[in-house]
Every structure is written in structure tokens, then in C-alpha cells.
């Protein structure tokens, strides 16, 4: 029977990592997948995570199943980070959170909840967006539509295109926003634009959804929640898929969350019962390790302060690489203006390199970049930046 099966195309991001692993050239550089590298080129286990894990090993008494929605203390941590410590949404019990296997797992839960429980079947995503969004939502049974986002000439947000394409979004349609550090462009709306979008969403009756995978990588955990919190002020219902893969460096522990905000506590509980059915039919209940680690850190003031300091270290190092990258390209006589890279947020830069240039970088220089031209700046170090800039200067 299997002879009828045809091969699937390689994943645009993780497929690149597979190809990178197989590449035997010792000078190879992987700027494909969004993974933080320190100055030594390692993806470290955060110090606060190591401490929390030691405590967990000491204190853990069972490996019993978690509940369908996961660890309660973890859900509380997620909500405080999303909405703020003293948010009324939390006090009024309008939010329910399910621990999820990574941000991707949370997106899939959201997709199935929309497809099965809501009157709409349509989700609007930005063009461009994370390469997996369309696949996740289509697999959940949704129709995916795109709104304009990026002005390739200005290398900036095309806010007018965004507004004009969203004129076609109907009341009840789901509109997906990136909480911060838009993937792949690194360009976020300004505070004023967030305010405008939040009010527009309420006026139009959209159901806003946030993919929030990089909280803390733009300016800080509180600052980066500005857009989401503006939406929460004006919109009675919200869906959020969040992740601690990046900001806690817990990539392979799959630590994400699906959060639903409803009009009131009753409605939140009723909707959440359907979310639990979706989870039960998918993976039954979540794994515990990473979520336990996050809950330990967030509930210990000293570890929490350590985490914030380590997150700031990661954020500052990426910012330093952005500035250096722009300088080094200019010093190689590249006359194209790359200064926009220093203004973008988070792990990624949308470089403007063409598919052909990206191919040449891989074939001739062993430099791996996503086909869209997205560069993971988080993978640039002082040790690889010269080779990287030499390669880019050559293909330009
Ligand atoms: C990325 O965009 O590189 C990350 O979100 C990792 C992934 O799963 O694609």
C-alpha cells in the first residue's frame, strides 16, 4: 500500500536544519531556525532553569498523569505574563489556560476550537508570516486568508495595506496577530497602531488571536505585551497561543499554552470544556517537565529575577549583533542600505535577499538562511559574523 505514497516537501525551516546537520563543511553557519546562540555558538540551558531542575529532581514525588489542561500553577504564570500581575481579566476569571506542547500545539488547539465551535471558518494571517501557520490552521480545517503586512521597498510595516485588506474580514472572523517580534519580518506595529487595531477589531467584531512566542525579546516581558493588553482592553473575547521555547530556552521541552478569554467566567468555563475535549482527542494530557520548571522559576522571586536578567542578556546580545551586522556589511562596501536590520525586533531579520542569493549562500558559503530571506540574527556571533558578511557581500 505504501508504494502509492508520494514524498512530502521538506519543511522550509526544520528541513533546512536537517540539511545543515548533514553538511560536512566545518565552517557552516545555521541562521535558519530561530534558536538563540550565545557568544560561544551554543544554545545554553539557562542558569535559572538548571537551578529549577535541580530543585524539581529533589522534590518531585510522582510521575502521575497531569490533568488535561496541565499544571494549574503554570496556567497562572502564563496569565500573569500575558495580562499583567493584577489584571482584571484574571481576577474576574475570564481567562482559562491549557498547557500545550509548544506554541505550535497551542495554535493547533486554537485552530480546532475555531473550526468546531465557532460560526466562522476563516482565519486571517499576515503576509508574510511564520511558515507553519498556514499548515497548522489548514490541518485544523480552517480557511486561511492573508492580510498585507510588509512593504518590501520601505522595509517597514505596510499599515495601509494591512487596514485595507482587513476591510474584507467579516464580523466573527479570526484575525491573527504576532504579539511582538513579528516572524519573519521583525517589524511590529507602533503603540499607536496597536491602539488603532485593537479598537478597529472591537468595532468590526473580529475575534482577535495572538501568537505570542517571543515575549521579552523586543524590549522586555511587560513592554512586549502592550499590543495584546490593548486588545484585551477593547475586545471581550480573545485567543492566545504562547510559548516559552525561546524566552526560557526550553525548546525541546515543548512548553506552550493556549489561553482563551471570554466575556465572563461562565462562558470561559463552557468554552474551555470544549478545549479540553479537543486536547483529550489529540494528546490526552501534556508533559510536565518544562511547565514545572517555568512555574518554579516564576514563583521564586530570586529565580524570577535571574530569568529576567538572562533574558535581557539574550536580548542585548541579539541587538549588539544587529548593529555589528549593519556595520560590517557597510565596511565591505555593500552599498545597499541595511540599516533597517538594526530597527527590527527579536530573533529575525527579513534581509531582502532573494531565493537565488539564499541558494548561493548555502551552496558556496555553507550559510543557511530560510528561502524567504529571513535571517535568524540570534545565530550570529562574533566568531561567524565576518564569514557571514563576506558571503552576503559576495552574493550581493
Ligand atoms: C522558527 O520560526 O524558526 C521557530 O519558530 C522554529 C520553528 O518551529 O519553525
UniProtKB/TrEMBL annotation:
Highest taxon above the source species: Bacteria
Alphabetic keyword roster: Aminotransferase, Pyridoxal phosphate, Transferase
CDD domains reported in the protein's UniProt record: AAT_like (cd00609)
Gene3D superfamilies cross-referenced by the UniProt entry: Aspartate Aminotransferase, domain 1 (3.90.1150.10), Type I PLP-dependent aspartate aminotransferase-like (Major domain) (3.40.640.10)
EC code(s) of this entry: 2.6.1.-
Cofactor: pyridoxal 5'-phosphate
GO biological process: L-phenylalanine biosynthetic process from chorismate via phenylpyruvate
MF (Gene Ontology): identical protein binding; L-aspartate:2-oxoglutarate aminotransferase activity; L-tyrosine-2-oxoglutarate transaminase activity; pyridoxal phosphate binding
SUPFAM superfamilies, A to Z: PLP-dependent transferases
Cellular component aspect of the GO annotation: cytosol
Segments forming domain Aminotransferase class I/classII large: 27-392
Subunit structure, interactors included: Homodimer.
PANTHER family assigned to the protein according to its UniProt record, in alphabetical order: ASPARTATE AMINOTRANSFERASE (PTHR11879), ASPARTATE AMINOTRANSFERASE, MITOCHONDRIAL (PTHR11879:SF22)
Family statement drawn from the similarity comment of this UniProt entry: Belongs to the class-I pyridoxal-phosphate-dependent aminotransferase family.
Name of the protein in its database record: Aminotransferase
Source organism of the structure: Oceanimonas baumannii
Phylogenetic placement of the source organism: Bacteria, Pseudomonadati, Pseudomonadota, Gammaproteobacteria, Aeromonadales
Amino acid at each position: 500500500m505504501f508504494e502509492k505514497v508520494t514524498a512530502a516537501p521538506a519543511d522550509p525551516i526544520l528541513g533546512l536544519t536537517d540539511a545543515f546537520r548533514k553538511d560536512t563543511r566545518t565552517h557552516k553557519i545555521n541562521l535558519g531556525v530561530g534558536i538563540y546562540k550565545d557568544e560561544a555558538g551554543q544554545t545554553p540551558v539557562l542558569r535559572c532553569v538548571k537551578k529549577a531542575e535541580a530543585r524539581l529532581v529533589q522534590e518531585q514525588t510522582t510521575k502521575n498523569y497531569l490533568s488535561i489542561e496541565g499544571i494549574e500553577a503554570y496556567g497562572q504564570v502564563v496569565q500573569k505574563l500575558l495580562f499583567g500581575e493584577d489584571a482584571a481579566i484574571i481576577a474576574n476569571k475570564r481567562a482559562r489556560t491549557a498547557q500545550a506542547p509548544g506554541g505550535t500545539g497551542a495554535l493547533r488547539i486554537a485552530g480546532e476550537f475555531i473550526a468546531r465551535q465557532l460560526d466562522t471558518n476563516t482565519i486571517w494571517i499576515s503576509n508574510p508570516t511564520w511558515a507553519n501557520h498556514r499548515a497548522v490552521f489548514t490541518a485544523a480545517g480552517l480557511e486561511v486568508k492573508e492580510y498585507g503586512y510588509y512593504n518590501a521597498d520601505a522595509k517597514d510595516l505596510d499599515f495601509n495595506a494591512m487596514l485595507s485588506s482587513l476591510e474584507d474580514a467579516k464580523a466573527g472572523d479570526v484575525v491573527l496577530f504576532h504579539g511582538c517580534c513579528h516572524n519573519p519580518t521583525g517589524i511590529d506595529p507602533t503603540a499607536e497602531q496597536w491602539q488603532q487595531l485593537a479598537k478597529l477589531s472591537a468595532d468590526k467584531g473580529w475575534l482577535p488571536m495572538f501568537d505570542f512566542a517571543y515575549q521579552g525579546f523586543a524590549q522586555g516581558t511587560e513592554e512586549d505585551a502592550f499590543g495584546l493588553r490593548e486588545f484585551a482592553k477593547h475586545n471581550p473575547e480573545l485567543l492566545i497561543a504562547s510559548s516559552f521555547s525561546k524566552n526560557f530556552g526550553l525548546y525541546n521541552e515543548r512548553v506552550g499554552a493556549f489561553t482563551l478569554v471570554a466575556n465572563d467566567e461562565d462562558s470561559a468555563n463552557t468554552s474551555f470544556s470544549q478545549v479540553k475535549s479537543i486536547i483529550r482527542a489529540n494528546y490526552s494530557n501534556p508533559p510536565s517537565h518544562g511547565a514545572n520548571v517555568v512555574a518554579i522559576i516564576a514563583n521564586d522571586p530570586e529565580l524570577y529575577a535571574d530569568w529576567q536578567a538572562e533574558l535581557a542578556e539574550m536580548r542585548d546580545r541579539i541587538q549588539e549583533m544587529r548593529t555589528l551586522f549593519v556595520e560590517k556589511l557597510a565596511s565591505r562596501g555593500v552599498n545597499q542600505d541595511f540599516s533597517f536590520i538594526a530597527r527590527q525586533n527579536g530573533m529575525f531579520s527579513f534581509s531582502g535577499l532573494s531565493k537565488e542569493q539564499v541558494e548561493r549562500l548555502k551552496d558556496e558559503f555553507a550559510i543557511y538562511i530560510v528561502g524567504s530571506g529571513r535571517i535568524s540574527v540570534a545565530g550570529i556571533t562574533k566568531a561567524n559574523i565576518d564569514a557571514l558578511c563576506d558571503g552576503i557581500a559576495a552574493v550581493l
